Structures are given as structure tokens and as C-alpha cells.
């Protein structure tokens, strides 16, 4: 069997999944079919013979096509060129089928997804709905891994109902301030007390260059990492969520984006990448 037939079979095998990915990103069955046809055209390129994992390649290509479509949705979309014998027949727009798909995904979710920034939408759909790792998502949205993780986190907050309830912010701030105070006092016991036993600390490449580990797991390990080291950190709202920043002389150096659940910190992302820092909405807290 020649390579073209193998790729055609793989495309047909992946069609339901690709359509599901594209529909959740675009919210339109017709546009999802357009994205799939464009992916099919790219699969016919001479370079396609070097593809080692067609399923992963197709998912990445469809996601990038959808991202471009979201970014240019207001401009007039051209119909893809159909070459007889090369492109699988395009499914006609079927309002009933689209309604069934929308009901399966959730009408409320689709409405919220349309309000997300294109990159946020791509990151959220690929990670939260299709379990694609952020290492694979980052090059699709042209961000660092940690920046891609923050895109999905920001989208998740909006999908789940916006920013944390006002009543929760003081409680979360108290946890962050207790963490920072314990760090300044070099109090391991107090640090462990505000950390979830399975807390995870992740640092982007820029934060690692500042002396942080790429990843740590467990309250004891994370507590030792921060003991005595947060003297310059102060609490802040980071994209509407409580966290901390390090900004010596008013110059933002590091963001500690924290997740607080049930009175303990479950995750900390240490981010120092300049592009990622510029993308945050920050409000310092007195």
C-alpha cells in the first residue's frame, strides 16, 4: 500500500476526533469542515511522507488552522480549492447535526468559549477537553509552556464563571500572606502548614535561570525551596487570582501564580519569561 493511501486511511480514522476538536474551537460545523479540508490539503504536500505520527500531526495542524481562522474571523473567508480525487467530499452544512453537536458540547460552554481570546480558546480546548500536554500546545499558540498553561488557566476561570467570588479573595489572600510571612521568617513548619501535601511548583526556563528548580513536588520540598527566599515578594492579583510578584525597584522580575483550594496552596507557577510577564493583568495589594 502506497504512502498516500496510508495517509488517507489515517485521515478518515481521525476524522471524528478532528471534527470534534475543530467544532469546539470554532463553534461552527461548516467552519470545522473547512479546517479539516485545509488539513487534508496539507497532508498531500511532499513533506507529508516524513510524518511519523499522523494523528498528532493532524491534531496540531487542525489546531493551528483553527487559531488562524479565529484570528481572521471578521475577514471574508475563501472556500478551499477542491481538486477532484484528492479532497474527501465536504459534508454539507446540516443545522440539525450542528444543533446535536452543540447540545453534546454544551450550549453554555460554547457561548463562553466565543468570548475567549483565540489563544486562550485553543489552549483550553486542547488541554482541558482533549488532554493534549502543554508541551505540545505551546508551539501551536507560539508561547512558552508556562505561558500556555496560564492561557488555559485564565480561560478555565472564565469558563467556570469568571474571577473567584469576592468572598473568596480575602481568604485566598490570607493564605498567600501566611505563605510569604513564613518564607520571610524561614519557618518550615508554617510553610508546610499552608501547602497542600501534594503541592506542585513549576518554573519556566527564565525562572530556572534565576535559581529556581524546573519542578518540585510535595509540601516538604516546596517549603525548603521557599524558606527565607520571599523577602522581596508581595501579594498581588494576577489575572484576577491571588498570587505574588517580585518587582525590585518597580521592575517586574517574577510572578508566582498560585492556586489556593480549601485554605492551602495546591500549585505554584514561577514565571519570569518577559513575554509571559507582559501578558498578565496585575494589581498589587497594599
Instruction: Write the CATH fold name of the largest domain.
Output: Butyryl-CoA Dehydrogenase, subunit A, domain 3
Q: Which structural class matches the secondary elements?
A: alpha+beta
CATH class of the largest domain: Mainly Alpha
Judging by the overall fold, what is the CATH architecture of the largest domain? Up-down Bundle
Describe this structure in words.
The structure is a single chain. This protein is of the alpha+beta class. It has two domains: 3-77 and 94-159, PhyR, sigma-like (SL) domain (Butyryl-CoA Dehydrogenase, subunit A, domain 3); 168-284, Nuclear Transport Factor 2, Chain: A (Roll), CATH 3.10.450. The chain has helices spanning 3-26, 29-43, 54-71, 95-105, 107-113, 118-129, 134-141, 145-159, 168-184, 188-193, 205-209, 219-226, 274-278; strands spanning 195-203, 215-217, 233-238, 241-246, 254-261, 264-271, 282-284. The chain has a seven-stranded mixed β-sheet. Helix 3 (54-71) runs antiparallel to helix 6 (118-129). Mean pLDDT is 80; it is low at 74-91.
Keywords:
7-stranded mixed beta sheet, 286 residues, alpha+beta, 13 helices, Nuclear Transport Factor 2, Chain: A, Butyryl-CoA Dehydrogenase, subunit A, domain 3
Task: Summarize the SSE layout with pairings.
Elements: H1 3-26, H2 29-43, H3 54-71, H4 95-105, H5 107-113, H6 118-129, H7 134-141, H8 145-159, H9 168-184, H10 188-193, E1 195-203, H11 205-209, E2 215-217, H12 219-226, E3 233-238, E4 241-246, E5 254-261, E6 264-271, H13 274-278, E7 282-284
Parallel strand pairs: 1-6
Antiparallel strand pairs: 1-2, 3-4, 3-7, 4-5, 5-6
Helix pairs in contact: 1-2, 1-3, 2-3, 3-6, 3-7, 6-7, 6-8, 7-8
Amino acid at each position: 500500500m502506497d504512502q498516500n493511501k496510508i495517509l488517507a486511511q489515517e485521515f478518515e480514522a481521525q476524522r471524528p476526533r478532528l471534527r470534534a476538536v475543530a467544532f469546539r474551537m470554532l463553534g461552527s460545523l461548516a467552519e470545522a469542515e473547512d479546517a479539516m479540508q485545509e488539513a487534508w490539503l496539507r497532508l498531500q504536500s511532499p513533506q507529508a511522507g516524513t510524518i511519523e505520527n499522523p494523528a498528532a500531526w493532524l491534531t496540531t495542524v487542525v489546531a493551528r488552522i483553527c487559531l488562524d481562522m479565529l484570528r481572521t474571523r471578521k475577514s471574508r473567508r475563501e472556500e478551499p480549492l477542491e481538486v477532484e480525487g484528492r479532497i474527501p467530499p465536504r459534508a454539507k452544512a446540516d443545522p440539525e447535526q450542528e444543533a446535536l453537536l452543540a447540545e453534546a458540547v454544551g450550549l453554555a460552554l460554547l457561548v463562553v468559549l466565543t468570548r475567549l481570546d483565540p489563544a486562550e480558546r485553543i489552549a483550553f480546548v486542547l488541554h482541558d477537553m482533549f488532554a493534549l500536554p502543554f508541551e505540545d500546545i505551546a508551539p501551536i499558540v507560539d508561547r512558552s509552556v508556562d505561558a500556555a498553561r496560564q492561557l488555559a488557566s485564565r480561560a478555565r476561570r472564565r469558563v467556570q464563571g469568571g474571577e473567584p467570588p469576592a468572598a473568596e479573595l480575602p481568604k485566598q489572600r490570607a493564605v498567600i500572606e501566611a505563605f510569604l510571612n513564613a518564607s520571610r521568617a524561614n519557618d518550615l513548619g508554617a510553610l508546610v502548614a499552608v501547602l497542600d501535601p501534594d503541592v506542585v511548583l513549576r518554573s519556566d526556563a527564565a525562572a530556572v535561570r534565576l535559581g529556581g528548580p524546573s519542578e518540585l513536588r510535595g509540601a516538604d520540598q516546596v517549603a525548603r525551596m521557599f524558606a527565607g527566599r520571599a523577602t522581596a515578594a508581595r501579594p498581588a492579583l494576577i489575572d484576577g487570582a491571588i498570587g505574588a510578584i517580585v518587582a525590585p525597584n518597580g521592575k517586574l522580575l517574577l510572578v508566582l501564580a498560585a492556586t489556593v483550594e480549601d485554605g492551602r496552596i495546591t500549585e505554584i507557577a514561577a514565571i519570569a519569561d518577559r513575554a509571559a510577564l507582559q501578558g498578565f493583568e496585575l494589581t498589587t495589594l497594599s
